[in-house]
Amino acid sequence: MTSNRDWNLDMVSISVCCPSCGSHQIANRGKTKNGKQRYSCLQADCLMKTFILDYRYNDYVTQILDSTMNSGGISAVVRELGINPNTVMNEIKKRTLH
Predict the structure, then answer these.
(1) Which domain holds residue 27?
(2) Is 3 inside any structural domain?
């Protein structure tokens, strides 16, 4: 039994430009460990060689330190921030050893 279906496969195109120089001469440069696409700027005079289009930086360090300094336990910090307990322990260890 064969059925005739009309498939509408639209391609999505994203215009990528370098956040440093604004060039549109971009090449794919693999993926990060989280699966996000990494790009490379092909301009010779560009200062930023690789970048991620949707980069997000979560400033957990200051939140971890603030919460632990205010007598919050590690498990409370983990629940509050929704992060791994190992992350909390590693950041505390980094700050206490220096």
Answers:
(1) 14-55
(2) no
